[in-house]
Design a protein that fits this description.
Elements: H1 4-14, H2 20-30, H3 32-44, H4 70-75, H5 79-88, H6 96-121, H7 133-144, H8 147-182, H9 184-187, H10 192-198, H11 202-209, H12 219-228, H13 231-238, H14 248-259, H15 265-275, H16 331-334, H17 342-348, H18 357-368, H19 377-380, H20 386-394, H21 416-430, H22 435-450, H23 457-472, H24 475-485, H25 508-523, H26 531-544, E1 559-560, E2 570-573, H27 576-585, H28 588-596, E3 600-602, H29 605-615, H30 638-646, H31 650-663, H32 688-701, H33 706-719, H34 722-738, H35 748-758, H36 761-764, H37 775-787, H38 791-800, H39 808-815, E4 820-823, H40 838-852, H41 877-891, H42 898-910, H43 919-929, H44 931-937, H45 945-950, E5 954-956, H46 969-972, H47 980-983, H48 992-1005, H49 1017-1031, H50 1035-1050, E6 1066-1070, H51 1074-1077, E7 1115-1119, H52 1124-1133, H53 1137-1145, H54 1153-1163, H55 1167-1176, H56 1195-1205, H57 1216-1241, H58 1246-1253, H59 1258-1272, H60 1288-1302, H61 1305-1337, H62 1344-1351, H63 1354-1364, H64 1374-1382, H65 1386-1393, H66 1409-1420
Parallel strand pairs: 2-3
Antiparallel strand pairs: 1-2, 4-5, 6-7
Amino acid sequence: MIDLKMINNYNCKRLNKGSSEEVLFWKVFGNVYLLKLIFHHIHTTEWVIYDSHKNINVQNRWKFKDVYSLNWMIIKKQYPLLINKIIFGDFIFFDPNSIMVLFSAIPKLKKQQSSTNTNATATTSDTTTTTNITTITLTLKTIKEKEKEKEKEAKRKGIEKEVEIEEEIGILKYIIKLLLERRRLEFEICDLTLLAVQSNCSDTLSILLGEQYSMIVYPSTLEWAIERSDCSIVKQLLSYKNKEILTEDIKKKCLFLASINTQDPTKMIDLILNESVYKLPSPPPSSSPPPSSSPPPSSSPPPPPPPPPLPQSLLKEPIRPIPSFQFLCDDEEYNLDYYYDDDQESYKKFYDQSFDENETNIEIERERDVENPSIIFEKFLEISSVDTMNRLMDLNAVKPISHRHTISLFKFEFSIKELLVYLRIYFKLYKKDNSKLYETLEIKIKNEIINNEELDESEKLKELRRLVVIHSRQINFYKVYILHYEESIDEFHMDSRYDKIDSSNLDSDCKKLLTLLRYMGDFRIETMPGRHKYYLEDLKKMESSSSNDRWCPLIFKAIEYDPSNFHSEIFNITNKSIIDWISKTNSIVINTVIYMSSSVSFSSIQLKHYAISDGFKNLDLGDNKKGISYLGNGNWYVKFYLKEIEYFNVEKLREVENFIINNIDNKPLPTFGINIDIYGAFDFKIDQPIQQKQKQQQQQQQQQQQQQKQLSQNGLEDEFDSKMFEKKIVGLIEYLNKTNFQHIQLGMHGFLKKAIEYLPREVSSTLVINLKPLKFLVNGWLTASIITLNLKMVEFLINNLDDIKFETQDFTRIQHVERNLFNKTLNLYHNHGEILVFDFVMSIFQKIVNKWGNQENTVGHIEVEKEERKTMKSLPQSLILILNYFFEMIIQTKCITIEQVRMAHQFLYINSIPIDHSLFHAFYYLKIRSAKFTKYILSRPGIEEFFTTTMDSRYNSTRKYSTRGCFDIRNYLKYEMFTFDYVLGESTAVSFDQILQNLFNQLSNDICFRDDIVPNFYQLSKNADLVYCLEIKRVDLFFQHLEMIQFHLKDTTVEGYILKSDGPFTHRYSYNTPKDTILPTNQLFSGGREIPKPIQTFDHQNTQQYDHCIFKPLKVIYSFEYSDKVLDYVLMVITDLELIQKFLEFNFHVVQFEQTLFSKSIFLSKFDISTFLLSNFDIKFHSFPRFSLYTHYSFYQESAFILKNHFDKVRYPNKFKYNLNVFNDSIFPNALLSCLVNFISTKRNAVFYEEFMDSKTRKEALIRLLGSQRNAYGIQAPDILGLDEYSTETLFGKGKQCKTILVQPETQSLLKSVYDDYTIELAIRREKERLLEEEEYVDSDDNLFLSAFIFGDIKLCNLYLCHYYHRIQFKITKSAISKAIYDQKIHIIKYFYNGHHLNLFNDNIKNDKELSNHLLNELLNHNDYKFDLNWL
């Protein structure tokens, strides 16, 4: 500690040299009182004001000397502190989790670095394309107007951030090196290379594997990396100098592990293949020729293998020529058309691209246990490179599919190369039973397609696609094929379920018709009976026709199909010729598809009207059904009208309106009404040409790199002009306004809501619309906008309304909006600032007052004093309701400031707006004043049970709950007190402490003795109060609450106080208390200070009647039961030892209270408090260390503190077990009489009671009672009010009878005689136990040294060896070695193997032949350590 005299002398010499400020500083620094006061405020004052109550806790601030956690220092980026502690040897707690946090910090920073670069590049463009205009509008608004400035700013910030990240990465690398150089014994407590791999940190791995540190890599690390790390990590490991890590087992399973890699399976498999680290199992004997060899690995990818050519005929049997329009089957066989079989359900699942995840995981785990695992089929399909897939199949490294999935293997967009590979996959792995067919097929593909010079690339691709259709029979692929080439494949339809028609003799138009019929009939209405007969009829009809327009070339182009969805066709009719052709052809199959499909669309209202009124009027549907009437059902024209609104095309909208009025139902309509809201969410869209271009660019972007995607997106944004978009919306609104929105009045809210949302506020606030025709709807719109906080819509409506008069239902809607305070996780409900902009709300306030209040008040007038309040026209109740609602939303806004709330409140006040007050207002006023008030309210016991009782998930302040057995703040918080002026008033608000005291009184002090809230409410409430005071660092309030508890305790000492088993205080014996264990040398009560008196029950206050007794009854006292959190927080917050003593004095007669505080001070490393307790009390040690090594984070600090400062307390650690009995022996005589009374009085011991009460059998009863009680006696005596069938009154009555007999002189003499005989016998037995324990202690794995050895703590082992070298000759045992190896603590075995332990052993493992042989056997049986034996 600094000598203050030296400081003062030094300061006096400097008085004439420094400035006046420096002189003043040293004067203050030399003043003991001021210096102490300054440091007190530094330690206790909260410098940070927390907005959230959950952020207020005792761990917000730490002294540097109390920070030990490596984890905490890395997460909080306290690098200078960590470096300082490393260099100066301060204690740092290391464990695998904290080391993982250190290693993981570097990859996380690099990820931030890459994202920073991406964000900087993308600041001038939005990388997401969508038909929703919102994103594009925002992008143009935020980027295009200030594009150059933002680009420069983004680049500058990006460079600065990149430099910061690089510096931080450099610091982290330096920390790792510093730890390895200066603290390696503490740092290397586990496999660091494995942790570096698991954290995916190549930088750390490079440091660990460098020549300076040369750490070992085990095979399990490489195995883990192949399965879970990226390729850079595996490359580092494969280049590791010790090639033994690449075991035969890893070589066999590396391809399998790479296939399930969580980062990038394709790259990992390529790495394994290129590095040739795999080992394939011996192939089973087979007569089939070997698979085609893959090209040797090289730096550049090998050229793709030639795709197999498509032969003219690829079927097993040639197709027989079929007469035109004839079936190969008779009518009975034809009934198969209407079929269902086992495969039917699987066809419905063709387009599900994902496997059952659970089933796949089971298959992976099953394969993992195989000696030579193969890549499972499901994971093989996830590989993104067809070259890699080819190579794996060449190596026979893939396991064929084990259970049949219906998978859409082929995609129409596949290239020739991809189709060739997937054909091979199909036959070799998926349809493995047909692998022999592929051998023949492969040759034909090569000869007839790939090497066929007569075919160009597109023709080769078509032939391969045709081949895929024939063999895979993948329907979604075939449907795209038909739409793309406008032809079908006869071979596909030769199955009995299809038509079996040979189209070779048909002309081109008939072929196209047959293709369309097959597409419609076989894939859209496949269950339609007799459809194949209709095919023939339609073909005959066309064949007999001589018309030039037998076929419509637009038909296939009108069908839009998504192969990922089986029935996703949209039949988009864009031309009248399509309708005419369908009508003329009048095919029952095609007509049925149109009739059954809800996805037929028309590009214009004229086309649909023509189809309804003429074109589709007489379509033949079979069974004498004619026409497709459903197309004209309802207001079918609505969507055409809405479409033009969505694209804000005024000219076309006018055209549609005129068409509807003049043509619907063949009679003019004066007007028509459309409710937009019932047709789903309304939204504006981009013009169709741009939309089409956008869709094309989206498809291109899927095949391009991210950079190209961004460039393409920029091009799209250039096409879109936000100003033009705004003008179009405004123009549309102006057009509709001219017609008084006559056609969309019912659904105008949805339209206006979306329009206002897209328009910037400077535009929406200037819109002028005639809302008079919509007066009966506006109230509902305004109410909905207010409730949803749609401020732009509210402003727009206020600007355009002449008055606002709410109906009853409007008042009810707003008043019944839930005013939620918090949810069941005790998180508050808030409006976010980006939703409720304060300035915006204030402008709405101003508009309302200016428009309807007949005043020229402005926001600036809020400085006016209250007495200068304006006299103004009274506002309607509807406007007062609106203003109050928005004021409520203001105070509920997250991070709102007191000044802003005062501004809003003052504005309403000076404009004579009455402001409501409720529990909602009081709660948020308190929250705005300080989150500490919210924390106290929500810390009340029973508040969490509220949600269980009410079965609600949130606390609605406007709802009345029926609550019992929980804490409902409405019942106890007098919200009328906490008004705005009281809590937040600029000149009227009371102090923080005054508000807090009122909360204490209302929510705790005034109700603490109530028993209808929650059980034991007094204990819970007072403990919560104490915890709260410590959490907000108010030690003064903490002791005020202790005084109150003490005052309540004193009430129990009066005569007539009724003892209750469930009372607020604990009724217990007082023995082995701080008063009993205080040392004669203590300094606590010097200067005449008195020892606190116990708070005894009235019946136990007179103890003179027991002065003659040898064995006296224990004192019975009342005490308050502190929670563990209170005791922990006391030691964490209170640093002044005088205050610790004060707290101790409140509990000076509580059993072992000083022992409890000592244990907690040790656990929390508060060694100044530990020293204080050891200096003043006889602290007993029953174990050392006091806590388990696996649960106590500072066991080294505890050991170092005790061994260096109080070694005598633990000089004989082997005696702790029998010392516990000695301790019992010293305490038991004092507790003997009370134990006997308590034992005999209970009902379950009624036999003993009868024997004891009989003077003839009393001695024998005492002998048996003494033995049973002594053997069962522990440090704590049983509670007085134990569980028993006797009532409290009966129990105490019997106890009083027993006590009366026990205190009689003759009984005391008898008891002493029995006790002395028992003590002699017990002492002999204890001595035998002690000698036996001393012999076994050194060999026991739970002795001090071996416990630390098995735990792997080298520093702790050396500490014990240094201090116990002369007392105990510790040694390493076989059992300890086995346990350390099992727990992967090889580092400590290596350390002690060669004697790196300060010569504190007589011998080391290396020189002990028995131990070294045992160690070698253990290592040889270990999967990893057997490959690292060079250190032996």
